[in-house]
Amino acid sequence: MNRTVNTVLALLGAALAFGQAQGQTFPSKPIKIVIPFVAGGASDIVGRAIGSKFQEILGQPAVVENKPGANGAIAAEFVAKAEPDGYTVLVGSIGVFSINQALFKELRYNALRDFAPITLAVTTPNVLITRPDLPATSMKELVDFAKKNPGKISYCSSGTGSSDHLTGEVFKQTAGIFAVHVPYRGGAACQVDIMGSQIDLSFQNLGAVTNYIKGGKMKALAVTAATRNPALPNVPTTAEAGFKDMVVTSWQAAAAPAKTPREVVMKLNDVMVKTLRSPDVRERMNAIGFDVVAGTPEEFGQFMKAEVERWTKAVERGGIKPD
User: What pLDDT does residue 121 have?
Assistant: First the structure.
């Protein structure tokens, strides 16, 4: 019996020593940041910002890889199955870390089981945008237009199960209108077709489209927040527009594969928090409508669990199904 106990203690000690050694030597090569959507969207913007100071702070660069598809599930599964050594991390959205879990019954990863949380990076409301030539300047006018043109209105999203998809579904249910859902492999592609007047409307992360709105390339009718956003002070909230239950906050976060050593997770958290809180990065994020959070792994883990529970109830209550 004593020999068995001693063996177990020796193995635990060796594992602890190995983890500490990894933490001390990490990183010794570039770190891959996997983005689950096409370049140009909110996750891509945040992921590249997070990795911008890795070389300066850690002495090794961040290499960004876009791996879009299945509302981020392809990239999430890839990272979940990667070696848990800290050299492959995922920067993804509310959809990847919570809504997918609620919406898809045969998801090939489990956000709560398969990831080691690093940090909740930023939050942002969604904003209702339309093609620049749509004859509506308010949510009420948009609803009237949709009712006068039944079956002819389309809305795009960054993928089935994304926050912009579910916000669009809630809008349709609340307003009593019909609009065809067109899912893309990321918000950037959806935004391009809005600006090209090939799609009528969308609920996109405010931080990803602020500059387009200010440049007149698309119209903004409302933000899905409790108060107006400083980045777009003249755009009313959904509550002001008559849709008081449409408050939706989207977010971006970072995680590593489960079983990544604690020491490595904390090094990644440290560099990401320092980067996000640095004056130049924070100013850049705030200017386009992102609020920097940059908290602890534990805080993000608790937040992610609460979001999975919230969206599971929302999907069940609304009877929302994947397209």
Answer: 98
> From CA 43, how far away is CA 63, in angstroms rounded?
15
Distance of alpha carbon 189 from alpha carbon 210, whole angstroms: 16
Which ranges in the chain belong to alpha helices (H)? 2-25, 42-51, 54-58, 73-80, 94, 100-103, 111-114, 139-148, 163-175, 187-195, 206-214, 262-277, 279-287, 297-318
Report the range of poorest mean pLDDT among 22-26, 72-76, 199-203, 301-305: 22-26
Number of domains in the chain: 2
What mean pLDDT comes out for the span 146-150?
Answer: 94
Residue 278 has pLDDT above 80, yes or no: yes
Q: Which residue has the tokens 């019909």?
A: 178
What CATH number has the domain bearing residue 179?
A: 3.40.190.10
pLDDT digits (tens, 9 = 90+) for 161-201: 888 888 998 899 889 999 999 999 888 999 999 999 999 99
Residue 263 identity (one-letter amino acid) = E
User: In sequence order, which residues have a C-beta less than 8 Å from that of residue 52 and are 6 or more positions away?
Assistant: 62, 275, 281
Pair 206, 219: CB distance under 8 Å: no
Whether residue 130 sits in one domain with residue 117: no
Domain range for 306: 29-123+249-318
Contacts of residue 201, defined as CB under 8 A and 6 or more positions apart, other chains included, come to 128, 129, 130, 131, 134, 142, 153, 154, 155, 179, 194
Same domain, 111 and 133: no
pLDDT at 320 over 90: no
CATH number at residue 255: 3.40.190.150
Residue 270 CA to residue 213 CA, distance in Å, equals 34
Band of pLDDT at residue 13, cut at 50, 70 and 90: low
